[in-house]
Fold:
Amino acid sequence: MFLLSTLDSAGIPVLAGVDALVAYLAYKNPAVGLLGAAMAVLGSLIGCFFLFGLARKGGERYLDKYTMSGRGATLRSWFVRYGLMTVFIPALLPIPMPLKIFVLSAGALGVHPVTFGLVLLVARSLRYFGMAWLGTQLGDQTVPYLKGHAGALLLLAAGLFVFLFLLMRLLSRRRRPMSREITGH
Structure:
């Protein structure tokens, strides 16, 4: 699980999805499923930090190479506008969503590694431990259940994104007046 998750998060596609494997392990043996979820989280963190580090070393020139036009340019502009929400949402949901370009953007555009790691840790923990829980509840019907509810998961992602976006705007508005009072401007 650790190796598969590391490879998948580092940009090497894995034929059998990590989510399905976590759910299957939990279905067969809940204790092993929890260990599998923990290994998937750890592997994903390492794989994503590998991409993050590559982009950080190469900086914006590395990012420019992959995001000058087309879909890459659109996804990069989303990261610039919405920040780490573009990492959190796809890292959280077990449906295919672009994540790697946002990881690369975070590294190249100078996001602090601790902040990046915490966002990723929370999202991947919720995802993989959630998959383990689903595996114990639904058994071998976990993957068909998720496929059958992909639309609902996309709506959940959109709703979560809007909620987090509005929350961030509200918090940033509250911080600005306080910083003016402190600086006297």
User: Anything to note?
Assistant: Residues 91 and 123 are 6 Å apart (CA to CA). The radius of gyration is 18 Å. The chain is about 85% helix and 0% strand. Residues 30-67 form the longest helix (38 residues).
